[in-house]
Fold:
Amino acid sequence: MFRNMLKRSFLSIRRKLGRTIILTLIFFMMANLVLAAITIKTAVAAQMDYAKSTLGGTVTIQADMDAIRESQKEEMEKGANRKEMFKNMVRPAVTVETANKIAEYSEYVKDYSYELSSSANSADLEVVESEDDNRMPGGPGDRMRSESSSESKLDKDITISGISAYAYISGVQNESFKIKDGTYFDEDSTDKAMISYEFAELNSLKVGDKFKIKNVYTEKTVELEVIGIYDNSDERANANAIYMNTETAAKFLSSDDYNDGKYNVSNVNYYMINSEKANEFVEKINADFKELSENKLKIAVDTSEYDAMSGSIESVGSFATTILIIVIVAAIIIITLIVTINVKDRRYEMGVLLSLGAHKRNIIGQIATELLVVGTLGFILASLSGTFLAKGMGQSILESQIASSAQQSERNFGRPGTQMGGSNNGSTLPEMPSDDASNGRNMKQRLAANRTQNVELDINATPIDFLLLFVTGYLVIILALILPSINVLRYQPKEILAGKE
Amino acid sequence: MNTLKVENVSYSYMNASGEQKVLRDVNAEFKAGKMYAIVGESGSGKTTFLSLISALDKLQEGDIKYNDKSLRKIGGSAFRLKYVNIVFQSYNLIKYMTAKENVEIAIDFDNRKVDANKYLKQVGLSEEEGNRLIGKLSGGQQQRVAIARAIASNSPIIVADEPTGNLDEDTEEKIIDLFKDLAHKEKKIVIIVTHSKQVAGHADKILRLRKGKLS
Structure:
C-alpha cells in the first residue's frame, strides 16, 4: 500500500501539471525569500564578527575635563587670579612610557597610537595661506591656533605632528590622505617628514630635500628630510602640517620636556581586539595605573565606529528576521489554503481509495508526499536563485540603512570645524582645556559613517543555510498539512461516494 | 466455506419528516461459489444494504459477520481492504490515472505482483485502451475498468451496483459470465444489485428488497 501511495503521489504530480507548477512556484518564491533571509542573517552574523575584530572600539586616555573644572573652581574660590591661573595651567598628559606600558595588555589591545605635536616656523620657508578660517589640519595646529592667545602669529606657523604610526594620521584610513610622491615614515625614519604637496610646491621642495624649522616655543631647530609628499583631499586639512614619527617630533622638545625620553604624549588611543571587552580593559587600567586619575586623566571608551557600522548591519539582520517570520507565516497560511482546497477537490478520489480499503493515514501520506516532492523541487530551484536575491536584497537594505545613518551623521556631526586632531605635547605650549574628546568622538563617528559606506555584506549561502532552508520548508509543509489532514480524517467513504452517486 | 451473514440488520436516518426506516430487521446469508442478485424498486433500501455489506457505512442495529467474525471487530477499513471489493454504478475511477493504473491500485493494495492487463483483457479492454486516461474512455469502457479493478483484487466478496447499466448487450453477456466465473470457479461471493431482469436471471439466488424487508 505504501508503494502505491508513492506511485499515486508521483502520478498526481505528473498528471496534474497545472497544480504542480503553481505549487512549485509558490514553494520557489517562498524558499527564495526564506533562503535570502537566512543567508542575509548569516552574512550579518559574519559581518558583525568581522566588525568586532576590525572595529574593536578605541580606548582613549584624555584630560578629565570635569576634574579640571572642579580644580579650577576650587582655586578661584581660594582667590586665585583667573588670568594667571589659565596662563600657568598645564594640561594633564600621559608619558610615552605609561602609554607603552598600557599597550602591553595584549589580550585587549590590537594596536595603539599617540601624538606629539607643536608649532614651528622658518625664515626660509613660506606657509600655505588658508582660504577660509575654518580649515582644520587633520593635525593639531588649528586647535592650538584657536586656543592660542597669539593667534595671528600661529596662523603663519608650520604644524609639527609626530605620530606613532603613519596609519593613524587622520585621513589615512578613509583614504582622504594619500601619498603623492615618496613614501611614508616609520619608526626608523629619524629626521624624516612628510609634507603636503601645496607646501612642497610653494617652497620648491621635493622628496630627498632637506629643510630646517624651529619650534616657536622651545626655539629648537631641527633639520628634516622630505621622505614623502602627501595630498589630503579633506578641504579642512592643514596644508602646513608636517608629519613625522614621535621620536623626530620629540627633538623639538626642550631637554626638560624630553625628560630622558619620558616625554608627554597626547591623543593616546588603544585599539581593542574586541569592543565588548573595552570596559573590562578600562577597569584594568584604572586599577593598575591609579596615577592617571590622580593627574586628572580619564580613560574613555569609544565604540562609535563599531556602533555605527553594527547599527546598519543589525538593521539589515532585523529586516531579514522580519521577512523570515512574515514569509513563514504567509507560506503556512497560503499552503494550508491551497492544500485544503486541493483536498476538497479530491474528496471523490479519497472516497474511492477509502472504499478500496486505503487507510486515512495512507491518503494523508499521499498528500504529504506530493507536497514534499513539489516543495523539494521548489527548494532546489530556490537554492540556485536565492543567493542572488539575497545579494540584491541584503545590499539594497544595507545601502538604505547606510544612507539613513549618513544623513543622521551629517545632521549630528556635520558642523564645520569639528574634526579630530587637536593635540598638544602637554607641557611646552600654553594649554587651554578644551573638549577635544568630543571633537575626536565626532570625527570617529564621521569616519565610521565613511567606513560604513564601504561595507559590503558577503552574502553567500553556506551548506548550513541550505540545510536551514530545507528544514524550514519541510516544517512549513508539515504545519500546513495539519488542517487539511483533520478534514481527511473526518471523511466517510459512503458520504463522499453517495454525494457522487 | 466462506460465508457472509447479515443478522437482524436495521437502518434508519433522520430527515425533515422524522426518522425514516430504510432497512427493517434484515437477515441473509451469502455463500462462496454463488452469485446473488438483489432486486427491488427505487427507495427500497438496496444502496443502503450494499453500503452496509461492503462496510462503506456503519451498522446501527444487528450485525454482519464474515466467517462468523463480526464486521465490527474486523473494522470497516480492514474489511474493505481484505474481504470486499465494490463495483460502483458511477464507476468511481481516479481520473488522473490510466485504466491500467486504476486496476493496479487494487493489485498493489493486495501486495501482489500481477499484470493489470490480464484483468483488463478479461473485461474486453485492449492494452492500448488500458493505457488511456479514464477521461479518454467511454462510459461502457469505464464500467469495464471498474469491474476489472474489482476482479483484480483478491477479495472473497464482490459487490456490484448495477454493473452492466452502461454496457451493450454483448459486453453485458461477457461481464455476467465473468461474474458467474468469479463465483463458480474462483469461489467468491458475488452480490449484484440490479434492476435488470436479465442479469438477475443469471444469479444463483435472487433476493428482493421491499420496504426495507428482504425476502
Observations:
- Residues 133-154, 412-443 of chain A have pLDDT under 50 and may be disordered.
- DSSP finds 18 helices and eleven strands in chain A.
